[in-house]
Amino acid sequence: MRFDGKVVVITGGASGIGLAAARRFHREGAKVVIADLNDELGAAVVRELGPERALYQHADVAAWPEVEALMQRAAKAFGGLDVLFNNAGVGSFATTPNLSVDEWRRVIDIDLSGVFYGCKAAIPLMRERGAGAIVNTASISGLRGDFGFAAYNAAKGAVVNYTRAAAIDHAREGIRINAVCPGPVDTPLIAGVNQLQGIRELWDEAVPLGRFATPEEIAAVVAFLASDDASYIVGAAIPVDGGLTAHTGQPNLPRLLGLQAGVAGSGGA
Predict the structure, then answer these.
(1) Tens digit of pLDDT for each residue in 243-261?
(2) CA angle 104–147–257, rounded 5-degree value
(3) Which residues are part of the catalytic machinery?
């Protein structure tokens, strides 16, 4: 019950990582406000959790007035705001010459500006409580580059550095801001991957743990970062990726050469 009596806002909270986080925070005692664009799924989450400690609001995170209204409604309904999980986001697949200006703006507006809007609206309310915690969903794609993900890489990289800047600005107010950087996660956002023959196998092979994360595994880290257990963590960008970014990207030579694990070559580096 780390969040007993706390008020938590989650954007993109009707499915995937956001839904797993809503369940996790609620299970630990929080009053949860879920924002999404899918009203049917949002209403279903409230029915599941119960209206006493759960609320849904339709909100487009790319629209500042809607984000501001979301935070104000959460504070009015439950008496304040303690935690914000800026989770809503979209993907985009295109290299720069093939990326339309409209698509670039859409990804930046949702994935980056949506995080800024959430923090801008939440921080004054957290000041009134004397403390707060914000967790932003970045990505390992904000820590490294990917083939064909120009807009997404740019937006998530900016989320990582914006998180650092906002964190140091507000740490002495008792407001901790951090980012979680998931690797591949089994969510509706990448459900199409399973339809492409051989792609999922290649992706699983690239991850040292050999599989995608579950949304619940990401939600566990989000809940940790938002809790008092992480009271001295400020401005961090935590990879939750099964070891993917720990890898240099070079081929698995022991496997290719048929060597047993732990057999090292001779000579210097």
Answers:
(1) 999 998 888 888 778 876 5
(2) 165
(3) 152
